[in-house]
Amino acid sequence: VIRAKAVSAKEVNSGNDTYGNPIKRIQYEIKQIKMFKGPDKDIEFIYTAPSTAVCGRLLDTGGKKEYLIAGKSEGNGKMHITLCDLVATWDSLSPTQKKSLNQRYQMGCECKISRCLSIPCFVSSSDECLWTDWAMEKNNVDGRQAKHYACIKRSDGSCAWYRGMAPPKQEFLDIEDP
C-alpha cells in the first residue's frame, strides 16, 4: 500500500500467453511518496493490463495527481494492479482515512474485515469487524464505515470499529464486550 504519483506510462511486453501471443501491459513509472505496507524497497514501476476491459487501471501521468494504491508487490520495485485493487486519488480520501493510514490501520493488521452483503449477517470470531457499507448503503463500497472508521485490535484480542480523529484511548482498547 503506497502513496505515489505516476510520472510516465508505456506499453511493454510481459511474456507470452499459453498460445504464444504476447501479453501487453502498461508500465507506469512512479514516484513513491510513502510506503504504508509492503517491502523495504521503493516501488519504481506499476504494471497493469492495457485497458479496463481486461481489468487494467488507468492512472493520470505527469506527476500531478497523488494516488493511494494497494496492489500486489513483487518485492523488487515492481507492483501489479487490477480493477479489483484499491486505487484512489489522495484528495478523494476523507481526513479520517488519511489519518488512519498514518496512525491507525496498523493496529488492525491482525483483524479480519468480513463483508456483509445482505442483512442479517454475523461475525464468526472476535477478531473480525463486520463491514456493512454494501448492505446498508445500497451497494456502496465507499460508504460511512469505509470513510470514517478503522477496524483495530483491542487489548483483549477482539477487534472493533473505531471512529475518531485522535488515536484510540487506552479505555477503548481495554473494553471487553459482554
UniProtKB/TrEMBL annotation:
GO terms for molecular function: metalloendopeptidase inhibitor activity; protease binding. GO terms for biological process: negative regulation of membrane protein ectodomain proteolysis; response to cytokine; response to hormone. It is found in: Secreted. SUPFAM superfamilies: TIMP-like. Keywords: Disulfide bond, Metalloenzyme inhibitor, Metalloprotease inhibitor, Protease inhibitor, Secreted. Residues 1-109 form the NTR domain. GO terms for cellular component: extracellular matrix; extracellular space. Pfam families: TIMP. Disulfide bonds join 111-159, 116-121, 129-151. It comes from the Eukaryota. Belongs to the protease inhibitor I35 (TIMP) family. PANTHER family: METALLOPROTEASE INHIBITOR, METALLOPROTEINASE INHIBITOR 2. This is Metalloproteinase inhibitor 2. It comes from Crotophaga sulcirostris (Groove-billed ani). The gene is Timp2.
